[in-house]
Design goal:
There is one protein chain. The protein is of the alpha/beta class. It has two domains: 3-44 and 101-206, Ribosomal protein L4/L1 (Ribosomal Protein L4, Chain: A); 46-96, no CATH class. The chain has helices at 21-24, 30-44, 103-119, 136-146, 161-167, 183-188, 196-206, and strands spanning 3-7, 13-18, 123-126, 152-156, 173-177, 191-195. The protein has a six-stranded mixed sheet. A hairpin with a 5-residue loop joins strand 1 and strand 2 (13-18).
Length: 209
Amino acid sequence: MAKVNVLNMQGEVVSSMKLKDEVFAQEWNDQVIYDVVKAQRAAMRQGSSQTKNRAAVSGGGKKPYRQKGTGHARQGTIRAPQYRGGGHVFELHPRDYTFSVNRKVRRQAFRIALSEKVKNNKFIVLDALNVEEAKTKNIIELLNALKAEGKVMIVVPNVDDNLELSARNLQNVAVCLETHTSVYDVLDSTTVVLTKEAVKYYEEAFIND
C-alpha cells in the first residue's frame, strides 16, 4: 500500500495518507491503455466534414461543347470531378467516429493511469484547495510551492470559479472535476494534483467493478 504526503498550499507536509493498491498500484497494460485512449480520442472528433459529389453540385446541365470535332476529350458536364468547381469523387459525409469499450476495461485503464503517476512521483495530494481571488498569480505561486512540473492537471471535487478563472490563462494547467476526468487527461498531463476528497472519491468509485 503506497503512502503519500499530504501538502498544504504552501507546499508544506501536513500529514500523510495511504493509497489503496486496488486503485493506485496497478500494473501497466499496453492493450488496455491503447483501447481506451483510442476510443476517447475518437470521441473527440467532430465528424462534421461534408463535401458534394457531382450529383449534388449545382449547374452543369448542358454539355460544355459538342461531342466530336473539337480535338478535346468528350465531356458531359462541367461539374465532373476533373473540372474546377466540380464534385468530389469520394465525397465526405458527417459521421460518428465513436465506438464503445467494455466498462471493466475503461475502469482498469483509469486505475493504471493513476498508478503510473504515483509510481513516477507525479502525484500530489493537497489537504485543501481554496483560491480566494481570481488571479493567475495565485496558481503560479501554488505550482511553484508544490514543485509541480510540466503540464499540470488539477482535480477538484466541486466547481470553483476563482480556480478556473485563475488557471485559464495558463496553457500548461487544466482544471478538471473528479467526475469528468478521463484516462487521456491523466496520461496527457505531466503532474496530477488532487485534493484528499478527490483521492477518496476515486478509491470508493474504482475499488470494485
